[in-house]
Protein backbone atom coordinates (compact mmCIF):
# COMPACT_ATOMS: atom_id res chain seq x y z
CA UNK A 1 0.00 0.00 0.00
CA UNK A 2 1.38 3.40 -0.91
CA UNK A 3 1.85 6.02 1.78
CA UNK A 4 -1.01 8.23 0.58
CA UNK A 5 -3.41 5.28 0.90
CA UNK A 6 -2.28 4.21 4.35
CA UNK A 7 -4.69 4.22 7.25
CA UNK A 8 -2.90 4.96 10.50
CA UNK A 9 -4.56 3.98 13.75
CA UNK A 10 -4.43 6.26 16.76
CA UNK A 11 -0.97 6.41 18.23
CA UNK A 12 -1.97 5.30 21.73
CA UNK A 13 -3.81 2.23 20.44
CA UNK A 14 -0.68 0.12 19.86
CA UNK A 15 0.36 0.76 23.46
CA UNK A 16 -3.11 0.02 24.90
CA UNK A 17 -3.39 -3.18 22.86
CA UNK A 18 0.24 -4.18 23.43
CA UNK A 19 1.00 -4.41 19.73
CA UNK A 20 4.70 -5.29 19.53
CA UNK A 21 7.14 -2.60 18.49
CA UNK A 22 8.12 -4.76 15.54
CA UNK A 23 4.66 -4.03 14.06
CA UNK A 24 5.29 -0.28 14.22
CA UNK A 25 6.72 1.60 11.27
CA UNK A 26 9.09 4.58 11.38
CA UNK A 27 7.62 7.83 10.12
CA UNK A 28 8.74 8.75 6.63
CA UNK A 29 9.64 12.30 5.60
CA UNK A 30 6.19 12.48 3.99
CA UNK A 31 4.56 11.36 7.27
CA UNK A 32 6.53 13.96 9.22
CA UNK A 33 5.50 16.65 6.75
CA UNK A 34 1.83 15.66 7.13
CA UNK A 35 2.21 15.64 10.90
CA UNK A 36 3.74 19.12 10.85
CA UNK A 37 0.93 20.32 8.57
CA UNK A 38 -1.77 18.88 10.82
CA UNK A 39 -0.25 20.58 13.86
CA UNK A 40 -0.64 23.99 12.19
CA UNK A 41 -4.38 23.61 11.57
CA UNK A 42 -6.45 25.78 13.91
CA UNK A 43 -9.02 23.12 14.83
CA UNK A 44 -6.31 20.87 16.30
CA UNK A 45 -5.89 23.31 19.18
CA UNK A 46 -9.52 22.65 20.17
CA UNK A 47 -9.24 18.87 19.97
CA UNK A 48 -7.03 17.92 22.91
CA UNK A 49 -7.27 14.16 22.22
CA UNK A 50 -6.16 14.67 18.62
CA UNK A 51 -3.35 16.99 19.71
CA UNK A 52 -2.17 14.41 22.23
CA UNK A 53 -2.10 11.72 19.52
CA UNK A 54 -0.11 13.95 17.19
CA UNK A 55 2.34 14.79 19.98
CA UNK A 56 2.85 11.10 20.80
CA UNK A 57 3.47 10.33 17.15
CA UNK A 58 5.94 13.22 16.86
CA UNK A 59 7.80 12.05 19.96
CA UNK A 60 8.08 8.36 19.15
CA UNK A 61 8.46 8.95 15.38
CA UNK A 62 6.57 5.71 14.74
CA UNK A 63 3.17 4.81 13.34
CA UNK A 64 0.95 1.76 13.34
CA UNK A 65 -0.93 1.05 10.16
CA UNK A 66 -4.31 -0.60 10.46
CA UNK A 67 -2.78 -3.88 9.27
CA UNK A 68 -0.90 -4.09 12.58
CA UNK A 69 -4.15 -5.29 14.15
CA UNK A 70 -3.69 -8.60 12.33
CA UNK A 71 -1.05 -9.32 14.98
CA UNK A 72 -3.95 -10.62 17.11
CA UNK A 73 -5.74 -12.56 14.37
CA UNK A 74 -6.44 -12.25 10.67
CA UNK A 75 -10.04 -11.18 11.33
CA UNK A 76 -9.43 -8.91 14.36
CA UNK A 77 -10.18 -5.78 12.34
CA UNK A 78 -13.58 -6.98 11.10
CA UNK A 79 -14.55 -9.11 14.10
CA UNK A 80 -13.47 -6.84 16.99
CA UNK A 81 -12.03 -3.42 16.13
CA UNK A 82 -14.58 -2.03 13.66
CA UNK A 83 -17.69 -3.39 15.43
CA UNK A 84 -16.50 -1.81 18.69
CA UNK A 85 -15.80 1.52 16.98
CA UNK A 86 -19.25 1.47 15.41
CA UNK A 87 -21.03 0.43 18.61
CA UNK A 88 -19.19 2.59 21.12
CA UNK A 89 -18.08 5.50 18.94
CA UNK A 90 -14.74 7.01 18.32
CA UNK A 91 -12.88 7.67 15.15
CA UNK A 92 -12.33 4.89 12.67
Automatic annotation (TrEMBL):
Record key words, sorted: Nucleus
Protein's name according to its UniProt entry: Topoisomerase 6 subunit A/Spo11 TOPRIM domain-containing protein
Origin organism lineage: Eukaryota, Metazoa, Chordata, Craniata, Vertebrata
Coiled coil: none
Organism for this UniProt entry: Podarcis muralis
Gene Ontology BP, a term: meiotic DNA double-strand break formation
Superkingdom of the source species: Eukaryota
PANTHER family reported for this sequence: MEIOTIC RECOMBINATION PROTEIN SPO11 (PTHR10848)
Location within or outside the cell: Nucleus
